[in-house]
Amino acid sequence: MKATTPPQTRSAAPDEFRVIVGKRPWRVWKGFSSFLLFEFGRAHRNEDGSRSGAYTLWIYLADWTVWKEAQELAHSESPDEVIHRAAEAFVGKCVLNVTMACFIEQRRTQTRATFRFEGGYILRAAMYDRGADDDAIFYLYTPKGILSYRRDGLMESEPLAA
Fold first, then answer.
1. Alpha-helical runs (H) found in the chain
2. pTM assigned to the model
3. How many DSSP H helices and E strands does the chain contain?
4. Conformation bin of residue 133: beta by default, left when phi > 0, alpha when psi is -120 to 50
């Protein structure tokens, strides 16, 4: 039987994702397409001169929605200016908890991650209906490696190259 993941990748424990709980992003921004990126921890300069945090949460191949209490502020298909305003609302807000869940329905299985922030802000990211099982809903870059939550519900950890 052929391995489906590189040997350096392993299953991640849910506790490994705890590293951002209790932290406040100092920058939240819209990347390419509908990607959302959250920068946490000490900032450092990248080779290209841009700044990143010690921890970067990258909402990747996902349909996502931002809420403040019961009001929708933006979603992954919103106009850029609406997404930028919603992203700015997360700056300085503490991550209270992260929920990763798999919903099994009659015709499909849906994985989703919910990030709750102080002030009633919520980011819910669900896997696109299209895509490969190993596509990631999000990546969490840490000083030790990269954590991911995949479309098929698996959590993975990949150490940084030495």
1. 80-89
2. 0.88
3. 1, 14
4. alpha
